[in-house]
Input
Amino acid sequence: NVSKKYRINREKYIVALENIHCTIQKGEFLTIIGPSGSGKSTFLSLMGLIDRATEGDIWIDNQNIIHFSDKQRTAIRAQKIGFVYQFPSLIPTLSVVENVTLPKIMQGNYESTDTKRAADLLEQVGLSDRLQHLPSELSGGEQRRVALIRAMITDPEILLADEPTGALDPQSAFHMMELFRSLNNQGKTIIIVTHDLGLTQFSSRTIKIEKGILV
Ligand code: ADP
Ligand code: MG
Output
């Protein structure tokens, strides 16, 4: 029964999500579809502990995180969740490989082997010759792949992605979804927001949101 209201001023607020009730099993590959403005990104940001619900409870691994402090939420996010934002949002002054290892540094458990692991993961998405490049030297699709690898470097159990194939050509989008599928085959829980109905064939379940309501 999760709701999210964005307050605009003292009298006005926008209801982005209303009484959402949803259970996602470990190891599921879920796609969330719905028109623009329906609340998909809001839903994902609540699940990713990036934003707070206005009402309702959110349970992750038998823990109700709703009353967790920011510090506790950050810890859960760092341990369990990888988030691929709608826009790649790479750090412009860091190289590709530095961007990818940044979450390990933020977690406080970076080891020198992580750079090797980052290089291996980047190779899997065809970026082995881009390790030392800056984000501005990459195409949009390449930046998205880097953002995906950055979300994977901590080996999270749960991977959330907001329109990860947006602005990709059909072939790159297909390739990106194959990547998610192989991660799912490795046991990761994958939750993807998309408005491309063609991509739902990759997932094990699709849910639809309309005007903030799960339909
Ligand atoms: P979607 O991802 O499905 O396009 P969003 O979750 O981004 O939808 O937005 C749902 C609704 O909440 C929209 O009406 C949007 O304008 C509104 N909204 C999103 N973020 C904010 C915010 N930070 N402040 C106010 N309104 C917001
Ligand atoms: Mg959105």
User: Anything to note?
Assistant: The chain has a mean pLDDT of 93. The longest strand covers residues 13-20. Helices lie at 40-47, 70-80, 96-107, 113-124, 140-152, 170-185. The chain has six helices and ten strands.
